[in-house]
Amino acid sequence: MLHPYADLPPERFWRTGVAQDWQSTLDAVYDKRFSIHPSDVIVTAGSCFAQHITRELKQHSFALLDLEPAPEGLPAEQHERYGYSLYSARYGNIYTPKQLVQLTAEAFGCRPIRVLPWQRGDHWVDALRPSIEPDGFGSIAELTAHRRHHLDCVRDCLERMDVFIFTLGLTEAWRDRVTGSVLPVAPGVVAGEYDPKAVRFVNFGIRQTLKALERFLLLLQEHRPSRDCPRVLLTVSPVPLTATATDRHVLAATMESKAVLRVAAAELRRRHRNVDYFPSFEIVQHPAARSQFFDANLRSVSALGVRTVMDCFLRHHPPSQAVGFEPPTGAASTEFSTQTRIEQALVCEEELLNRPTDG
């Protein structure tokens, strides 16, 4: 009997695409819309899992920008502790699309520069990127100067890039009531003091998430010198929430958050030909992996999980082997082996929520 499913390929069926010989069909999970060429200037950003992607792109000599490189004299093993070498600029983790769009708007001068200093002892922490200076800044003036320089670097990244790779991480966030700024972490976790009169909890839904992503694309199109929009490759972090500020179980909150992000990515791809999606989330969460892609805490992605994700990426976007290829000015350098980069701990503010509280 004929029916619409009769002649579909194996990867369209759960039995042959997932349950049986799943590794051979893994590449079919990624329906590549565009290629990333050796000469394409790449900018990366996003939640903690995006650091794995950045490291792998560096290791394989992609044309990845790094416009806020570490100062000479800072040991290589200290770079990431001070917010260097994590991404294409020193913005730290960008967990939500709303964070991304407010940073972009400030960089292009469409939003007033927000300086939100949190105090920690005798020093000051930038609430919008709280982990880039472990010891904090000596004064608010110093913090402000660093932020202005940082925004100049971000604008340069946004203007120069051909491909933007962004990892969607969270829907939950905290918002400053006065400025409206979305924060990467709640006050009191890294620095500052929690005051419910000063901040409020937000959990962005599908409409808000999609609106922020659309706004980001519009800002790029309006303010880049070429007036074009680069190729955008979205991915969803497979890392579960460390904790939830909702009144729900953390497992339910995680599933809802990832569902919102995944649907937003799919809808943006449907609307825009220059947007694609890479299935990091689907690969790591693959049922046939049977938890081998997570460490014992069931949250951190294992070295095997990262390797499987990036091997899939590299098969679709093979690195340059061309003799004489010249990376762009400001391209990131490679300093560690692939295995070292995979096993290296991520810089992740959200992990601090697991830290025991005083008293």
In short:
The protein is 31% helix and 11% strand. It has helices at 14-19, 50-59, 97-107, 140-160, 206-223, 250-271, 280-284, 303-316, 338-343, and strands spanning 42-46, 117-120, 123-126, 163-168, 172-176, 182-183, 199-203, 231-236, 275-277.
SSE topology:
Blueprint: H1 14-19, E1 42-46, H2 50-59, H3 97-107, E2 117-120, E3 123-126, H4 140-160, E4 163-168, E5 172-176, E6 182-183, E7 199-203, H5 206-223, E8 231-236, H6 250-271, E9 275-277, H7 280-284, H8 303-316, H9 338-343
Parallel strand pairs: 1-4, 4-8, 8-9
Antiparallel strand pairs: 2-3, 5-6, 5-7
Helix pairs in contact: 3-4, 3-5, 5-6
Category by helix and strand content:
alpha/beta
Say what the CATH topology of the domain at 34-111 and 157-173 and 203-239 and 252-349 is.
Answer: Rossmann fold
Tell me about the biggest sheet?
4 strands, parallel
Poorly predicted runs of 5 or more residues = 334-343
Q: What keyword list fits this structure?
A:
alpha/beta, 4-stranded parallel sheet, 9 helices, single chain, 3-stranded antiparallel sheet, Rossmann fold, 359 residues, 31% helix, globular
Description:
- The protein is an alpha/beta fold.
- The chain has a domain at 34-111 and 157-173 and 203-239 and 252-349: SGNH hydrolase (Rossmann fold, 3-Layer(aba) Sandwich).
- It is 31% helix and 11% strand.
- It contains nine helices and nine strands.
- The protein has helices spanning 14-19, 50-59, 97-107, 140-160, 206-223, 250-271, 280-284, 303-316, 338-343; strands at residues 42-46, 117-120, 123-126, 163-168, 172-176, 182-183, 199-203, 231-236, 275-277.
- The chain has a four-stranded parallel beta sheet with strand order 1-4-8-9, sandwiched between helices.
- Strand 5 and strand 6 (182-183) form a beta hairpin.
- Helix 3 packs across helix 4 (140-160), helix 3 (97-107) runs parallel beside helix 5 and helix 5 (206-223) packs across helix 6.
- The chain starts with 13 loop residues before the first helix and ends in a 16-residue tail after the last helix.
- Residues 334-343 have low confidence and may be disordered.
